[in-house]
Write a structure and sequence with these properties.
Helix content: 25-40%
Order of helices and strands: HHEHEHEEEEHEEEEEHHHHHEEHHEH
Strand content: 15-25%
Bound molecules: pyridoxal-5'-phosphate
Largest sheet: 7 strands, mixed
CATH topology of the largest domain: Aspartate Aminotransferase, domain 2
Shape: globular
CATH superfamily of the largest domain: Type I PLP-dependent aspartate aminotransferase-like (Major domain)
Structural class: alpha/beta
Length: 384
């Protein structure tokens, strides 16, 4: 079966090859070169992040976060069950016990009201995931963190150019907690094939993050001339990408506004086209709480049953449209199920069974969105 409308198509702005060539010509293509600095400056200036560092992936940004927080065996970390494995793996690698929280009934993000019941004296961190670029209620999360002296790591992999509207006004996601982790995987709004970024909102992490990212050495200080040789000063790994990756990413971020305008228009078209079918009770459209922006990362619907979702995937496929479901609840994953404390996480399981993502990429035409929603309408109206 070939699809006339794919689920995703990575968008090239046209400048990528040019910047890659420039990076190669510069003769320095290891990490923290010219383009990496340009990317850092862009994100710090345009989003107001106190400090960012490009990483090889969001997975690595999360692992770096777990190292920065000194997560140890015996510590507990709270995160949603409905998320990508990397959110969990980063802390599992440090030997932490994971405490999974259910999703909200109206949104796949973590149910903020269910966090406090799993906090205990071993808890070290809360890791909200801004699913589909929609904010978790960060005032609620930060209040709990302050009350119990916990750290907050935002998995903002899907949340570039997304915002939380809370008591401090408009704050970019990834700048609300202590640490934010972003992805530039080719399925995200702006991408470098593989790539990521960590944002460090607490000054106390700035120096050590540089060291952990550079194999536990103070090489970053050395290059700034702050020390006359660099040494092994801490644990660490290699989390910095080649400047080739940064060159590619720079071409994307220069076009961020255009990319976002297009993606949001597609999202809005889906949302208005599908309104009446939702009113008839066939499925739910994405819910965006008043405290969150919508960054055009993903458009999904939540069907009334697994059977209906399976049939709809097949129906769309027969019309050449590639739709995909998403995560499988992590609390009942083969690797973890024996460790789960037995709480039932019904909403997470509901999204596992019923959430369906529709094609959304820069080059998707609004007329194709209309075509897709027409097929969905025909499915629910029993037409072929
Ligand atoms: C994409 C994604 C990741 C992983 O990002 P990589 O850059 O591929 O490592 C982690 N968490 C969430 C929620 C994601 O969507």
């Amino acid at each position: 079966m070939s699809y006339s409308i794919p689920f995703n198509k990575p968008y090239l702005t046209g400048k990528e090859a040019h910047y890659l060539y420039q990076a190669v010509l510069s003769g320095k293509i290891s990490g923290d070169g010219i383009f990496t600095k340009k990317c850092h400056q862009f994100f710090e200036k345009n989003f107001g992040f106190k400090k960012v560092l490009l990483t090889t992936s969001c997975t690595d940004a999360l692992e770096l976060a777990a190292l920065l927080l000194n997560i140890q065996p015996g510590d507990e970390v709270i995160l949603p069950s409905y998320t990508f494995v990397s959110t969990a793996n980063a802390f599992a690698l440090r030997g932490a016990m994971l405490r999974f929280v259910d999703s909200r009934p109206d949104h796949p993000g973590m149910d903020e009201g269910k966090i406090e019941e799993v906090i205990n004296e071993k808890t070290k961190a809360i890791v909200p995931v801004h699913y589909a670029g929609v904010a978790t209620d960060m005032d609620m999360v930060n209040d709990l963190a302050a009350k119990y002296n916990l750290s907050v790591v935002e998995d903002a992999a899907q949340a570039i150019d997304a915002y939380y509207f809370g008591r401090n006004g408009k704050t970019p996601l990834g700048a609300c907690g202590d640490i934010g982790c972003f992805s530039f995987h080719e399925t995200k709004n702006i991408m470098a094939g593989e790539g990521g970024m960590i944002s460090l909102n607490q000054e106390k992490y700035h120096g050590r993050a540089e060291i952990l990212r550079e194999k536990g050495t103070n090489r970053s200080s050395f290059f700034r001339g702050e020390v006359d040789k660099y040494s092994w000063v801490d644990i660490g790994s290699s989390f910095l990408p080649s400047d080739i990756i940064a060159a590619f990413l720079y071409a994307q971020i220069e076009n961020l506004e255009d990319i976002q305008t297009k993606r949001k228009a597609i999202w809005n078209r889906y949302n208005s086209n599908l309104e009446s079918l939702e009113k008839e009770g066939h499925f739910k459209r994405p819910f965006v709480p008043e405290f969150s922006s919508q960054n055009g990362h993903m458009f999904y619907i939540v069907t009334n049953s697994l059977e209906e979702r399976t049939a709809l995937v097949e129906f769309l496929k027969n019309k050449g449209i590639y739709s995909v479901f998403h995560y499988l609840s992590l609390h009942s994953a083969p690797y973890f199920i024996a460790n789960h404390d037995g709480r039932s996480l019904d909403q997470s399981d509901r999204y596992t069974d019923c959430l369906l993502r529709l094609p959304l990429f820069y080059e998707l035409e609004l007329s194709q969105v209309d075509q897709i929603t027409e097929v969905i309408s025909n499915f629910f109206k029993g037409k072929s």
